[in-house]
Specification:
single chain, 271 residues, alpha/beta, Rossmann fold, 5-stranded mixed barrel, Pur_Nuc_Pase_Ino/Guo-sp, transferase, glycosyltransferase, Nucleoside_phosphorylase_sf
């Protein structure tokens, strides 16, 4: 794996020159608009990067963006990868390892997820304080390369506490409704049944989605501090469950995106 990561990293470095990003950003479903705030210096379609998996979803652009955001050099994934697309966990998390090799010191992750907590409404934001991993396989399974990280990485603080606290302060200062909670990661691509929503709430989840945790595990494996935030795009309350479409989810995510962008920009400015 290390050889593949190095080959991809070398290819990218050959095209971005002496540009060294301080932060990596993964943009989730309906949340690619943050790119409009980046002063872009270079962008590459995933398909043009050797060894880089290609996003198969029509609402994920599939571009690696290099530029300046809030005065800091960043690399942003406009479109992420999911297990349900048919990729294995090593492929899904490969971009995180490449971004680390390119020089990032902090990883920022966004996603669209469904609320499990009756106090958290669709359109609200939720800073992820912890997670429950219900994905069927771990991205660290297999031979461990000590150059990438330890065999048994600690996960007692998968999300950076200082960044969480600062994000909540930024939200409060800007009158943004932003909660703190536990994210449950499942495979998808179907949404959950009433019984599944009830179960996920019982085990401690505040929101549920189909991504994020594999990337967070690998970031922790490589010693990268992580900040993650969800836009709550639907409500998984068993007693009031209504059908929801991907179009509605994307629309709600896009409406909430300016609030998410405000928080991310101020966090990155403070690095």
């Amino acid at each position: 794996m290390l050889d593949s990561i190095q080959r991809t990293t070398d290819y990218i470095k050959g095209r971005i020159g002496d540009f060294v990003p301080e932060a990596g950003i993964i943009l989730g479903t309906g949340l690619g608009g943050l790119v409009k705030d980046i002063e872009i210096e270079k962008q590459m379609p995933y398909a043009n990067i050797p060894g880089f998996p290609i996003s198969t979803l029509e609402f994920h652009s599939g571009r690696l963006i290099f530029g300046t955001l809030a005065g800091k050099k960043v690399v942003a994934m406009q479109g992420r990868l999911h297990y349900y697309e048919g990729y294995n966990m090593q492929q899904i998390t490969f971009p995180v390892r490449v971004m680390k090799m390119l020089g990032i010191k902090t990883l920022f992750v966004s996603n669209a997820s469904g609320s499990l907590n009756p106090d958290f409404k669709k359109g609200d934001l939720m800073v992820i304080d912890d997670h429950i991993n219900l994905q069927p396989i771990n991205p660290l399974i297999g031979t461990n390369d000590d150059e990438l990280g330890p065999r048994f990485p600690d996960m007692s603080e998968p999300y950076d506490r200082k960044l969480i606290q600062k994000a909540l302060q930024i939200a409060a200062a800007n009158n943004i409704t932003c909660h703190k909670g536990v994210y449950v990661s499942v495979t998808g691509p179907n949404l959950e049944t009433r019984a599944e929503y009830r179960y996920l709430r019982i085990i401690g989840g505040d929101s549920v989605g189909m991504s994020t945790v594999p990337e967070v595990i690998v970031a922790n494996h490589m010693g990268l501090p992580v900040f993650a935030i969800s836009v709550l795009t639907d409500e998984g309350f068993p007693e009031e469950l209504k059908p929801v479409s991907i179009e509605e989810i994307i629309e709600i995510a896009q409406r909430a995106e300016p609030k998410l962008t405000q928080i991310l920009k101020e966090l990155i400015a403070g690095l």
